[in-house]
Amino acid sequence: MKILSSFLLGFSFLVFALPLFAQQSHELYSSNVPYMDTIKVFYPKTYTTTKTYPIVIMLHGWSANQDQWANITNLQTYADRYGWLIACPNGFYDSWYMDSPELASSQYETYFFENLMPFLQRKYKIDPKNIFITGLSMGGQGALRLYLKDPDFFNSAGSTSGVFDLKVVGNRLGLDRLLGAQEEFADRWQAFSVMGRLETLQDTPKTFIFDCGRKDPFFKNNEEMNALCQKMGIKAVFVPQDGDHSKTYWAKSIQTHFDFFKKQLK
């Protein structure tokens, strides 16, 4: 695997030596994804190699990139306030953060666990007991998808405005390219949906959080997700609130996730 690292503003000194800037950008190549990943990392200005830090992985929505969250809210403020690392990888426009059965070059789940996280763990002092993941819209379902893939790897997870039954989206936004036509592969679509994988969490004491605005087109699906969690006895916190599928809503909702993750710290 070929790894390239580039530092913001052209500085080439190591981040671990009392950095002047608390942000870094890295480039990571893997055959599991269609092109080079660019990862933006924010870390507390008090960062030191003498201790480990919780990390929050933040996934963007459909058609966006690794800069979306930083364009929504001040991530450096969050890193400093909570004293945590924050990493924003690229979701490759419409990967849906899944291992596609149709495209060999779109294996995001494999990429995440075999390439991305080992890379970050080599680069930064990450506390393995306190790895969190969250995201918005496509990234919201992606965060819970990855959490369900290996719940022992994470402390907790979150989703804001996520979609948990892929049939709600249908043959658009790249899903038919990744999964094949819904009409032809209905069972596959169900199996690849978050709601089709919830049994993974039935024996875990961990809990996760998800929220959605009442005017969001995915609000009904979030209510269905909550009802299914209750029926299956899965620990989850659902936060319905005013708002729609927008930057304004996500700038507000993400604060709830950070506060929730703080309560889960080990």
Write a brief caption for the model.
With 266 residues, the protein is of the alpha/beta class. It has helices at 68-72, 75-82, 108-123, 138-149, 175-179, 186-192, 219-232, 247-264, and strands spanning 3-6, 23-28, 37-42, 53-59, 85-88, 126-135, 156-160, 208-213, 236-241.
Helix content: 25-40%
The average pLDDT score comes to 92
What is the approximate shape?
globular
Summed up, the helix count is 8
Q: Percent of residues in beta strands?
A: 15-25%
Assembly status: single chain
Q: Would you count the extended β strands for me?
A: 9
Describe the structure.
- The protein has a 9-stranded mixed beta sheet with strand order 1-2-3-5-4-6-7-8-9, with helices on both faces.
- The protein has a single domain, classed as Rossmann fold, CATH 3.40.50.1820.
- By secondary structure, the protein is α/β, with parallel strands linked by helices.
- Helices cover 32% and strands 20% of the residues.
- It has 8 helices and 9 strands.
- The N terminus is likely disordered.
Topology (elements, then pairings):
Layout: E1 3-6, E2 23-28, E3 37-42, E4 53-59, H1 68-72, H2 75-82, E5 85-88, H3 108-123, E6 126-135, H4 138-149, E7 156-160, H5 175-179, H6 186-192, E8 208-213, H7 219-232, E9 236-241, H8 247-264
Parallel strand pairs: 4-5, 4-6, 6-7, 7-8, 8-9
Antiparallel strand pairs: 1-2, 2-3, 3-5
